[in-house]
Design a protein that fits this description.
With 492 residues, the chain is mostly beta strands. The protein has 5 helices and 37 strands. A hairpin with a 6-residue loop joins strand 35 and strand 36.
Length: 492
């Protein structure tokens, strides 16, 4: 990107985050050869990430960040070096719009040009752009508005829509935030749906799915809901799946169905609606307890665990949904991408009481931790942070925070912006934080991206930086596996 095209922030002419939202239309595969420092010898495995690779098609900008086409990246840590690869998911939306170089499908916040005639009764497309998971021999690109898409883990080539041999049926959708239960190896996921028709119309529910380590969907159930839930993520303990349905609600969805408005138009924050906390037994997949708490919303969760009669859940609390205004026009320099506040909830399964407390004051998002500790008490969580350093339009720091709330923050240099930090265990790790934090960073000065690696036990210890030959548009979520998927060495 030329100097004159760079977005700027503040009187000191610091580039802001929006250059990192520009398209990456090219697909690459090469061995990273520009490295500052030394790649750890005990870091081996594959780091996958997913997010919108383009926010514009032809002369049009998508109407919401959530509508950009999914593009997977992989960083493969091999003995021979670190191989980078990126590739778009070949959904019908991607194929049709690439060919036409114009919007052809509705989205979460995007309408097809042409008015009602072009949008009437057309469901939003699935861009497969939110998360990725390797489980049961399948690499999946995930978006909660549709079914998974399967990809080759070595080449990232698209295999096709994935239904677990037809067990995801008809309009059933599959969340971007499934979790693997460490004790059983089962993959637990969910999706908002309809359990039937009643006197008042469709009966909303949450479909809960359980997939064994061999990749077979062997158990499912539906949990009735009073309204269609805005439910993006959930928490997992050894015994329970816990869903928070908050004050972010859908208004009248008839205009969406008819094609006159988008889902984004109908999403609102209603402070009169309290949060509902629904506890699901993992063995029966049935609701066992429901709690009510003060209004608000939980978008992303950290860890959770059972503590006697109590269930303890960490997550990022939001007191409004003003961020949606920015997400509908990501290139508007007046918009700000913000985070939430790190909270802890304790629900007593015997008495029905619920308590919440703030863990940390720092504006944070994307909590991650050592996933081997999923469902049991862990000592350390890592978050993306937004700190006031004069260039705070996006996440510009990462934090290592203990269970008791003691935090260590590492700021990125002004003009550099990160996202979700990912924990990768060291080979032969014997401690919870024996490993590394992987952070993809956009450099607004050069319009390139880089992978920064930090020690997980001493996050201020910056180990090395792997510099890419291009930028990677800001992505949402990722997944690290210790497995490697060798291909012929590519350098194109």
């Amino acid at each position: 990107m030329a100097e004159s095209e760079m977005y700027r922030e503040g009187a000191n002419e610091v580039p802001d985050c929006r250059g990192g939202l520009e398209n990456l239309d090219e697909e690459h595969a090469y061995l990273i050869d520009d490295i500052e420092g030394d790649v750890p010898a005990d870091l081996r495995g594959t780091f996958f990430r997913n997010g919108p690779g383009r926010q514009r098609i032809g002369d049009s900008q998508y109407g919401h960040w959530f509508d950009g086409d999914g593009m997977l990246c992989s960083f493969s840590f091999q003995d021979s070096g670190v191989q980078f690869r990126n590739r778009y998911v070949r959904t019908p939306k991607y194929i049709d719009e690439t060919k036409a170089q114009a919007v052809q499908h509705r989205g979460f916040g995007t309408q097809v040009p042409g008015g009602l005639r072009k949008n009437f009764l057309k469901p939003p497309a699935n861009p497969a752009n939110t998360n990725t998971m390797w489980h049961g021999g399948h690499l999946l690109a995930l978006n909660e508005g549709g079914k998974p898409w399967a990809l080759d883990p070595a080449t990232l080539e698209t295999k096709g829509e994935f239904t677990y041999n037809g067990k995801l049926k008809g309009p059933e959708v599959f969340s971007a935030h499934g979790k693997v239960h460490p004790r059983t190896g089962d993959y637990i996921n969910f999706g908002a749906g309809i359990s039937g028709m009643g006197l008042k119309g469709p009966k909303p529910c949450l479909h809960i799915y359980r997939i064994n380590p061999e990749g077979n969907l062997f158990k499912r159930a539906s949990v009735p809901m009073a309204n269609f839930p805005f439910c993006h993520d959930f928490a997992l303990t050894n015994r329970y799946a816990i869903f928070f349905t908050g004050s972010i609600v859908f208004g009248n969805m008839l205009p969406v169905i008819l094609g006159t408005r988008t889902i984004s138009d109908q999403v609102q924050f209603d402070p009169s609606i309290p949060m509902q906390i629904i506890v699901i037994d993992l063995d029966t997949l049935q609701e066992v307890k429901r709690f009510e708490n003060a209004p608000g919303a939980m978008i992303h969760f950290g860890n959770a665990f059972d503590d006697g009669d109590e269930v303890v859940v960490d997550g990022m609390y939001a007191s409004d949904f003003e961020a949606n205004d920015t997400l509908t026009d990501v290139f508007n320099p007046d918009g700000r991408f913000g985070g939430g506040t790190y909270y802890r909830y304790r629900m007593n399964m015997r008495t029905g009481s619920v308590e919440s407390s703030k863990v940390c004051d720092v504006e944070s998002e994307f909590p991650t931790f050592n996933l081997d500790y999923t469902g049991r008490k862990n000592s350390v969580t890592y978050t993306a942070c937004s700190v006031d350093n004069g260039a705070n339009s996006f996440f510009n720091a990462i934090q290592r925070i203990t269970h008791d709330g003691d935090g260590t923050i590492v700021e990125l240099p002004k003009g550099k912006y990160g996202s979700e930090p990912m924990f990768a265990p060291a080979v032969g790790a014997s401690r919870e934080d024996d490993g590394y934090i992987l952070e993809v960073v956009y450099d607004g000065w050069t319009h390139n991206s880089e992978l920064q690696i930090f020690r997980a036990d001493r996050i201020e210890d910056h180990v090395c930086t792997l510099k890419l030959r291009h930028h990677v548009p800001h992505q949402f979520h990722g997944h690290f596996t210790t497995e490697l998927f060798p291909t012929e060495s590519a350098n194109v």
